[in-house]
Amino acid sequence: MSGLTEANLKALAGPRSFERGLGYLDAVSGVEVGDGWVTASVHGTERYEVELILEGPGGLGGECACPYGLEGNFCKHLVALGLTLLAEPENSLPRQREAARSRAQDLDGWLSDLANDELLALVRELVGEDRQLRRHLELRAASARGDLAAVRARVRELLDIGPFAQYGYVEYADARAYADQAGQAVSAIEVLTGSGRAADAITLAREAMRLLAEAVESVDDSAGGLGQVGADLADAHLDACRAARPEPEELARWLVGHVLGDFDSITDIDPLDYEDVLGERGMTVLRELATDAWRGNRTGWAEKYLMESLAKAGGDVDAVIAVHAADLAPNGHTHLVIARELDTARRPDEALRWAERGIKDARDLGAIDTALVDYLCDRYEQVTRLSDAVALRRDHFCVRRTLFGYQRLRAAARSAHSWRAEREGALALLRADAARRREGWNGGFVLVDALLDDKDVDGAWQAATETGAHDRQWLTLADQARAARPADALGVYLRLAEPLTKQTGNAIYEQLVSLLLSVRDCHRQLGTPDEFTAYVTALRTAQKRKRNLMCLMDEHGL
Description:
By secondary structure, the chain is mainly α. It is 69% helix and 5% strand. A four-stranded antiparallel beta sheet has the order 1-2-3-4.
C-alpha cells in the first residue's frame, strides 16, 4: 500500500500527465477493489477501462485502454484513479482489499464444497455464456484426450493474425491481444505433454514456432509480448523433449537446422539447454553438424555463434579462436576479441601477438578500432615497452588527429619521458591542419583545443588569432585568459553577446546573462565600471519587451 502516493503517481506519469489527471477526478466511476488491484472506468473523449496495480513485481503500475496507455505509458486516467483512491477516507482502501480477499476465499470455499454434478452444471452454464471460455476449454479438452488434429487446427487458428490485422498488419494497439491469444497455443502444447502425449507436443511445438515466426513479421511487437510467447514456446518444446526423449541424432539435426534457419529469432533456442536430452551421442552429432555448417559458411553469423557457443561450452579456446580467425574484421575488432579470449585463457603472449597482428593487418590505421589501440598500448606499458606504446599512439594520432588522440599520445609520452619532443611533432601536424582550413578545408580546430588542454592559454590565444577558432573555443579562451588579459576577453564576450540580443527564449537569455556577468567582471578589472553601466542601460532599453530577460538580469543585479 505504501506504493500508492501522490509523489509516486507524479513520478510514474510525469508532470504533464499528472496535471492533466487532476481534471479527470470527477470522471472516475465503477471502482472495483481487488487484492492488489483496482479497476474503474474513466470517461474522457471516450470511456476507458483502467486497472491500477498496487503491489506488482515492479511496484505501483497500471494499464489503460486509451491510446497513450496502450503505448505502455502511465496515463492521466491512471493518475485520476490513483488520486481518487487517495481521497478515500483513511483505511478505506485496506478494508476494501480485505473484503475482496475475503470474497475470493469464500468463492474458493463454495466451489470446493460443490458436488461434482453441481460443479459440472456450473461450468456448462458459464461455457454457454462465454464464447472465449468455451473455446479455451475445448482446446484444453482436445489436448487432454490427445486429439492432435483438433489441437493443431486450434493452434493454427490462435496464431492466425487475420482477426487482428488491418491491411495485413497488426498494429501496436492490437498486438497485446494477439499475443494473449497466441499464448493459449503454448498452454495447449503444455497440456499435451502433461497428458502423456509429449511426442505429439514436440511436433506441434515445432509447427507453432514456424507459424509464430511468420506472424511476427506482420506484428508491431514493440512491447515484446510475442517475444515472451516465443520464449514460452521454446520452454514448452524443451519440456516435451525431456518427457518424450526423442532420438538424439534426429533432435540434434533439428536443433542445428532450427538455429541456422529462419525461425529462431522469435524463440532464441540454445542447443546447449538440450544437453541432458541429447546425451553424449546427440552432443557429438550436434558438434559435427555445427562444425560442418560453419566450414560451409565461415562468415555466417548464426554458424559462427553456434560454433563459438559449443566451443566455449567445451572449453576449447583454440576452436573459439579458429571461428573468429576465419572471419577477421578489417578494423582489427576481431583481433581484439581473440586477444581477450586468450587473456581469459591465461595465454598473454599469444594475446599480445594477435593484437599486434590486428594493427599490422589493418589497411587503414585511421579506421582501426580504437579499443584495439588502447588494449595494445596498455599491454606495452605492462611489459615496459614504453617506446612501442608511444610509437603506436603517434602513428594513430597522425591519421586520426583528434583531441582524444592527442591526450592519449601525451599520456604515453609522459610515461616514457619523451613528451617534449612528441608534443612539437603533434602540434606541427595540428598547425598544418589549421593552415589547410584557411585554404577552405572544413577542419583543423583541434590545435586550439590541444593547447588549451595543455594549459597553454597564450599559445592557444595566438593560434586562435592566427588560424581562427569557433565560438565555443573563443568563449573558453576568454574565460581562461580573463584574469591576465581582460581587454581581449572583453572583446570576445561582447562579440558573442551581440547575436544573442536578436534571439528569444529562456535558454538564450541564460547564455546572454552569463556573458554579461563576464563583461562586468572585465570592466571591473579594467577600472571602467561606468562603461559597463552605460552598456547595460542601453541593452535594457533595447530589450525591455523581453520580460523574462529583464527578470533574469534583475536576479543577477544587472
